[in-house]
Structures are given as C-alpha cells and as structure tokens.
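User: I'll paste a sequence; please echo it back and then give the predicted structure.

Assistant: Echoing your sequence first, then the prediction.
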Amino acid sequence: MRKFLVTALIMVILVGVTACRDKSEQVRMATGGSTGTYYAFGTAVGQILNEKTGIPISVQSTGASRANIQLINAGEIELAIVQNDVMDYAWRGVDLFNGEQITSFNTMAALYAEVCQIVVSASSGIRSVAELRGKEVSVGDAGSGVEFNARQILDAYGLSFDDIGKHNLSFGASADALRDNKIDAFFCVAGAPTPAIIDLATNRDIAILEIDENFANQLIRRYPFYTRFPIPAGSYRGQVHAVMTVAVKATFIVSTRLSEDTVYRLTKNLFENQALIEAAHVKGTELSPAYATEGISVPFHPGAAKYFREIGAIR
C-alpha cells in the first residue's frame, strides 16, 4: 500500500511538472491590424516556428506597438512585433510612455525595415508633406507608434496635429476612408509593400509622398532610430519611380518571463529557417543576424543573446 502511495505521489508530481513545463512554453504572439504587415508576417513566422520548435504559438491581431508592450507587461502575451523606437520609449519611460517605464520585456531580434508611408490620392494635388495643412489626415491608431511617427514627421515640416483634421484609424480603415473620399491622406508605418495599400491601389490611383532629404536629415538628427529608405519603384500599382522616405525597425520582443531555452529555440529557428520564412512572406528577405542586432537599445533576452553569441553576431 505504501509503495502504491509513493508511486502515485511521484506520478502526480511528474504530471504537475509536465503541465508547468507545457504551460511555460505556450507562446502568444501579438502583431498588429489584420490588414498590416505585422499580422501577415507574424502569422507566417508563427506557423513555421510552431512546426520547427514544437512550441505552440498563437497569433493575435492587436493595436500594434504600444498596445503590444502593454500586453506583455500585463502578462497577456509572451512575444510581440513592435517598432524599435516605441520599445525604446517604453524601456526609458519617455514620449509615448512618459512616466510609464516598462522593463518587463527584452529584445529577441530586429526583423525588417518599417517604412513611413504617407498615402494620398493621385488626383488630390497634394505633392508634399507641407501641403497636408488643413487636410483630413489619418495618423494611425490612437497611442500607436504610427501616431508618434506622424507627429514627428509633421513637426519636421513645421506642422502639428492642430494643423490637420486628425483621424485615428487603422491601416485598413484608413485605406477605406481614402477610397471613399472621407480623408485626404494617411500615415502607414509598415513593411513595404503593405497589404492595405496594395489593396487600395488596385482600384484607386494613389501617390506616396516623399520626405525630402533636408527634412529627413533633421528627423534623423533628432531621433537616431530613423534611417533614410527608398520605396522601390513598382511597389504599388502606378508607382513608376522610387520614393525616398524614412524607416524604423520592426522588432521581435519577448517577455522576461519566458525561459532562456524557449527564446533560444525561437531565435535559432527564426534564422535557420529564413528560406521558409522568405517563401511565406517577402519581408523574410530582410532577415539577417547583422540587421537583427544593430541599433538595439533594449537588452537582448538571455536566450537570444546565447544564439547571437554562438554565431558571432554579438560578443
């Protein structure tokens, strides 16, 4: 009888340990709006990492960068795609996170360039950011990284939100509003080409506004996380020439609660399966350990750091 009880107790403990281990490896990934690059890329990567690591990964559509950081802080997700500028604000408790310092996340890897795209109707006559004064303009979801990028770009041109009819719409809703002539322009910060803009351009002639070199350099001096970036010709229907603008980095962040082993496996398989990711989504072409580790202001998770040290990407 005693032997039976001891055996039963051991089985209960083993089941409990297994349950805890399984629970710890459940990874919920936050992305962005369902018509944005975050969601499409995150879904593709999530499926591949799930298959290659055996770690159950569920993908959620969310309000993007700021919301994702808050979701990690609340313990509601473990993995998220965010802009590198927004994660810097959160870590330092400034700007979008003024007085709300959040350090419950670490960097996993920078992924691809997030391009600041300002979309107008080709027939609108708007040819410069300066000409947005007095226009109806969507600046992204309220409290999003896009909204803050819009504020910074407008400021470089001497404009503020008081100078426009400000709308807080998602990428898909912004595209619909432009198509229906309810707004004159919208900001979209995402990998280019962006699904919502591709869809809009199929039945509406559009133009992407250039951010002139002088204004771009002014932005970069004030906010070093920006880089100059050309949207290649042909990215959208009717776009004959490359459009020079600025970009930030889409970055995977992870909860500090995730184990080193889990994050190591996720990071390792992210790069060792680049060919599969590239085949699933065009942004996979930009994956590289060098890009993933450059210009990162928030510490790497120990699991990610372990992988990058193994391949010599960091010391």
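The two ends are 57 Å apart (CA to CA). Residues 110 and 292 are 4 Å apart (CA to CA).
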